[in-house]
Amino acid sequence: MNIYDNKEYMDDIRYVAGLELPWEKLKNKSLMLSGATGLIGSFLVDVILEKNVTENLNCTIYALGRNEEKARSRFYKYFENENFFFVVYDVKQPLIREDLKNVDYILHLASNTHPILYATDPIGTITTNVFGVQNLLDFAVVHNTSRFVFASSNEIYGENRGDVEFFDESYCGYIDCNTLRAAYPESKRCGEALCQAYKAQRGLDVIIARFTRSYGPTMEFSNTRALSQFIKKVVEGEDVVLKSSGMQYFSYTYVADAVSGLLYALLVGENGEAYNIADKGSDIMLKDLAEIIAQIGGRKVVFELPDSIEAAGYSKATKARLDGFKLQSLGWKSQYDINMGMKRTIDILKSLRQ
């Protein structure tokens, strides 16, 4: 089965496309996004193109990515659609395209999100998050883009100092910048600072969307995050492998909720503000998450020591729960808690393997 034939997935797409948002801001407009084939980006593309079909939104998508074959396979339903254009592009290079005259909204969603890559390609991790956002910010300024959205991360908060239970958008925890693993959180912090610099110096309208550890049926099995590997194991009929004590206490978000939060930030958010996309119903310790996933798949949890490369790529944070009140005050709310989201993810992914 392909993803567009899966009822649960299409129900998720239609749910987000049916939210009461000021969609008129996107009507007859254009939206460019990097990371178009990623977990968040691919779902967002499907939502906008579904909205085009059902309500004649007529929003043009410019999907940026390095691999046209991958994009053609993922978006086969829309690849020849008059509102969809795939642009072969590496965000670490300046974006100079004479054929892209008018781009109303830009979302920078591309980033290394694999712990293995944090350990083996820290330079690529930094340059994607820093040079990548600057290249797209420069493009936005030249093309008078209405709004620029930078997809940031819960990792910018660092380690909980023990003074709060939840991180609101003003919190600043501890990160040891003099380490290999700092490549990801510090470059995300720098990306946010660049957005604020372009707002102040170039007059650009910017929004920061801070995602938690997101998951869903648009994930890739090649992703080496613990959560992704837990899901991969049960989908393939194997036991869940936990490579730590599992006491890490984090926030998670199902992809439909992550994208709905992104749309609220894009369409309702205030210029210059950062928004946590998080709900307390999806906060859980890693060991408990492993158990939930194992139970859904009818498997068990087994323990294994990580190798040196895996250990180097793991986050050092042990407690990072995000406060989603600011985004919720704009009207956003989560549709799926951790149990519902995990079951939905596994069910859909299993069906896609049939």
UniProtKB/TrEMBL annotation:
One of its GO terms (cellular component) is cytoplasm. GO terms for biological process: D-xylose metabolic process. Pfam families: Epimerase. Keywords: Decarboxylase, Lyase, NAD. Its cofactor is NAD(+). GO terms for molecular function: NAD+ binding; UDP-glucuronate decarboxylase activity. Transmembrane segments: none annotated. Residues 33-278 form the NAD-dependent epimerase/dehydratase domain. SUPFAM superfamilies: NAD(P)-binding Rossmann-fold domains. This is Nucleoside-diphosphate-sugar epimerase.
